[in-house]
Amino acid sequence: MDKRTGALLCAATSAIFATDAWAQAAREQLAAGSDLTNSEIVVTAMRRTENLQSVPASITALAASELRDRRLVQVSDLATAVPNLQASPAAGDGLPIFSLRGVSMSDYNFNQQGPVATYFDEVYKGSFPLLPFAMFDLERVEVLRGPQGTLYGKNTTGGAINFISRKPGFATEGYLKAGLGNYRRYEAEGAVQTALGEKIAARIAFSWANADGWIRNRLPGLANVNAVRQYGVRASVLVQPSDRVNFVLRLSTSLQDPINFGIYARPGPAGVGGGIYELFGGSSYFRTGLTDREIESNRPARFHQRTYGASLTGTWQVSDSLSLTSVSAWDYGNLFIPEDTDGSPLKVLESDYRGRGAQIAQDVRLSSSFPGAFNFIAGAYFHKEIIRGGTTYRYFNDIDVNGDGGIDDADCLDPNGGAFIACQYDNRYRQVKHSAALYSDFTLALGNRFVLRGGLRYTQDRGEIDHLTARLLGPTGNPLANTVPGDVNNIDASIGARFRKGMVSGKLGIDYKLPGGNLLYASFSRGYRANAFNAQAYFSPTELNVARPETVNAYEVGVKSQFMNRRVTLNLAAFYYDYANQQALNVDANSIQSLVNIPRSRIYGSEIELGWKASRSVHLSAGVGLLDTRIRRGVLSGIPLSGNRLPNAAAANGSAAVDWEILGDDNRKLVAGASMNFTTKQYFDLFNTERIAQGSYAILNAQLAWRFARDRFGISVWTKNLLDRHYLRYAFDLTSTFGYDYLRLGDPRTFGLSIDAKM
Q1: Where in the sequence is the domain holding 140, given as residue range(s)?
Q2: What phi, psi does 739 have (nearest 5°)?
């Protein structure tokens, strides 16, 4: 641990004790029994139902009301409300790549599982084809920072995001909400539940949205891009045969098939095309006369994703102090992303990404609630995932290389094109991964104030990729040659690879309950991300390789505090990470790419989250994340990375929100809300390319809601990105090969109106 990190942790610890002293003084000054108290926030982050303030970990919990009031409707929107969380829309807003405390991934192929795990009602869903559109009818979202190695289904180095849907109940109730907005947006969401008998209840919920694209396509007759067209349905059934046993069955499906996202291709000096067209009598493209939110795309194709899921959660209260929980799940999904990667009327680069997958998972655990000092959770986990995927890249498929007046296979094979111009490269594969684990977690009270916590997990991961074949195709898709494994006699020849790895992970921590009732904690945890295959093999059999596992050793101290009769909640955390073997794509001088490991990086930082019930009608909340990331050792594409910052890891980010009940009583209320989120400068690549970095920016949002008839009806108006700020959310340097920077833009100003009714 370096000197700056030690100073940061010492300062945080001092601040913690100072905070508790302040809290004690405030309690002494306030009148007892004030009714201006925050409601209790209950989470299940540690696989137990607990008050958030009692959980010794850095967690942000967003209740359904906060998701609604801040209009967090896409999964990627979570990054605007959670300190030290970033979301890169590499595969679209509904399928973001999360970076948490600087831990992220740089290989976005469909076979990869990210270091920040996503769980839907305790079911892990890791690969892109299996991730549903699911931001509707939620009870809450929990974001856990730091390695998760003892309680959760998959080992992760970055953290976990838990989406918890509304559980069916026996009371008949429901709601319906409808809205409209600019860009011809129409949306609806609703749910209804009822008892089907004394022991059975059901709930069904849906969400639907449709909107035109907000990037205008200036080519006549072609659609605007970045559109919305999606729906999701979830049916849940609760069966409660006795007071000690209950089962919840959840069935869900979702569909997204809008006009795909658009690429803002910022031309380099030679234009989009990099001067290649000039060699054959044509000209490259320079985006003349277009604004940032205009495009001339010759391929505004439809994105398509369909998911299906089923899970059964059973809970048996074996005795007054022991409970058994089982979570069984099956998922299936398919995904197709056709991309006009050059964002121009030319065919410099076009890409098709295909994937379909299925998984089964089983988690079973025994939990204790003994009245004594010792308690535990012990369990077993199994997960199997099968992904079939592939990618097609089309290079300069509008150049007549041989000048014969047509574009066909002869142009691809012409020596002047170098098996690149007027060619396509296609690969496909099947990947199977198994993960099996035994895990345990315990707490041991050491007197009235200290609690010792620990956990241990052994995981056996194994994987196999087979039937990987890559081929050279002509501009019309005709197979011309086998490139991986390079068999001249069999155009469909294939190769494979496999791995098997056992790993021990765990944690150790201690809590101290301060005299004022607040919580001080310190912990060490070790997490890992399993081996990974490079499925982006197109030119050589050596491209299909296996990267070593990533590991993170994490040290954290923090405080959970409430004071002024719980009107103020202040949570602090400071951490240090030793990050080893981060997986990244490497491209050598011959354009051969492999998945490699960056040997060593370090991360330190902190989070501060504040909630303040300033009065009966005003509530304020804020959160700030601070990060300092550095690569200590590593070389990528022949370029030393030592001293570089990690991508998608801004030095500071955060948000603030205020809700003001302007007027109201038990029958009606007028509530205004405003929120702001900000991010300082961040890089999008491991090389820290300044030209495509995003500088600091802030986004303002606002909402005004009128609720009446004792909260049964409501109408609200809202706006996001009120000042219409232009900013980048993802960028990639393609200037050396194709002559442009690949840029993805943040959403423009949006606004709308919603009405809702409750049963």
Answers
A1: 3-758
A2: 85, 20
Which residue type sits at 268?
Answer: G
Compute the distance between CA of residue 552 and CA of residue 575 in angstroms, rounded to an integer. 12
- Residue 665 is classified by DSSP as -
Indicate whether 14 pLDDT > 70.
Answer: no
Per DSSP, 70 falls in state T
Q: What is the CATH number of the domain that holds 305?
A: 2.40.170.20
Helix (H) / strand (E) element for 14: namely helix 3-29
- Model pLDDT for residues 429-459, shown as the tens digit of each residue: 999 999 999 999 999 999 999 999 999 999 9
pLDDT level of residue 40 (50, 70, 90 thresholds): low
DSSP conformation letters of 342-411: T-SSS-SEEEEEEEEEEEEEEEEEEEE--SSSEEEEEEEEEEEEEEEEEEEEEESTT--TT-SSS-SHHH
What's the pTM? 0.91
The predicted pLDDT at position 407 comes to 97
Question: H or E segment at 68?
Answer: helix 64-69
Bridge partner residues of 65 (DSSP): none
Which residues, 6+ apart, have CB-to-CB distance to 242 below 8 Å?
none
Q: Structurally, how many domains does the chain consist of?
A: 1
- State the Cα angle at 143 between 679 and 106, rounded to 5°: 60
Characterize 447-478 residue by residue with b for buried, 16 or more Cβ atoms within 10 angstroms of its Cβ, and e for exposed. eeeebebbbbbebebbbebeebbbbbbbbeee
Contact partners, residue 288, CB within 8 Å, separation at least 6: none
Dihedral of alpha carbons 250, 74, 660, 22, sign = positive
H or E element that contains 26: helix 3-29
Residue 432 near residue 468, CB atoms below 8 Å: no
- Tokens 């765990």, located at residue: 506
Residue 715 binned pLDDT confidence (cut-offs 50, 70, 90):
very high
User: What is the DSSP secondary-structure string of 616-663?
Assistant: SSEEEEEEEEEEEEEEEE-EETTEE-TTPPPTT--SEEEEEEEEEEEE
Q: Can you spell out the DSSP letters for 420-464?
A: TTTEEEEEEEEEEEEEEEEEEEEEEEETTTEEEEEEEEEEEEEEE
Contact 522, 516 (CB under 8 A): no
Cα within 13 Å of Cα(336), Cβ side: 8
Which residues, at least 6 apart from 108, have a Cβ–Cβ distance to it below 8 Å?
90, 91, 97
**Cα gap 376→672, rounded to integer Å:** 45
Rounded Cα gap, residues 124 and 114, in angstroms: 11
Q: Report the alpha-carbon distance of residue 91 to residue 339 in Å, rounded.
A: 10
**Which of 651, 652, 674, 650 has its CA nearest to residue 662?**
674
Cα dihedral 93, 96, 101, 106 sign: negative
Q: Shortest CA distance to 745 belongs to which of 124, 93, 309, 132?
A: 93
- CA dist 87 and 72 (Å) reads 13
- Answer yes or no: is pLDDT of 481 > 60: yes
Q: In the structure, what pLDDT confidence band is assigned to residue 95 with cuts at 50, 70 and 90?
A: confident
Query: Dihedral angle at the C-alpha atoms of 292, 294, 295, 301, nearest 10 degrees?
Result: 120
